[in-house]
Specification:
By secondary structure, the chain is of the alpha+beta class. The protein has one domain: Trypsin-like serine proteases (Thrombin, subunit H), CATH 2.40.10.10. The protein is built from three helices and seven strands. β4 and β5 form a beta hairpin. It is globular, with a radius of gyration of 17 Å. The protein starts with a helix and ends in an 8-residue tail after the last helix. The relative contact order is 0.20.
Length: 117
């Protein structure tokens, strides 16, 4: 296999993986007063105990300086332009695990979208 063949193969694999994982990945944003919303990171939806949750990293949800939850956290689900506020609290653990889980209300998950868990 030539170097160019390998690069084409790698590009094809990356595009296929992005397409496959897109329904499971969601953007997480926050919004400070008088500022535009900013991307904080991403997460993935999971199904746990027949409920939907958003799994992400703790550093995505917490301000790096104050260690408090970022203001007006929100997430989007694949297949819709709607943004859903994260008002139900989260449980998280810091370094070295750096994980957080947020419950996704049934009403939010039942909205029209193409997301997967």
């Amino acid at each position: 296999m030539t170097d160019d063949d390998w690069k084409n193969h790698a590009r094809t694999a990356v595009l296929a993986m992005q397409s496959f994982t897109a329904p499971f990945v969601c953007p997480i944003s926050y919004e400070r007063p008088n500022e535009l919303p900013r991307l904080s990171g991403t997460g993935s939806y999971i199904d746990l105990f027949k409920k939907k949750f958003l799994l992400t990293n703790q550093h995505v949800l917490l301000d790096e300086h104050t260690k408090q939850e970022k203001p007006q956290l929100a997430h989007g689900i694949s297949g819709t332009d709607d943004v859903f506020r994260m008002i139900h609290g989260s449980i998280s653990v810091g370094y070295p695990i750096d994980s957080a889980i947020y419950p996704v209300p049934d009403a939010v998950w039942k909205a029209t979208h193409t997301g997967g868990a």
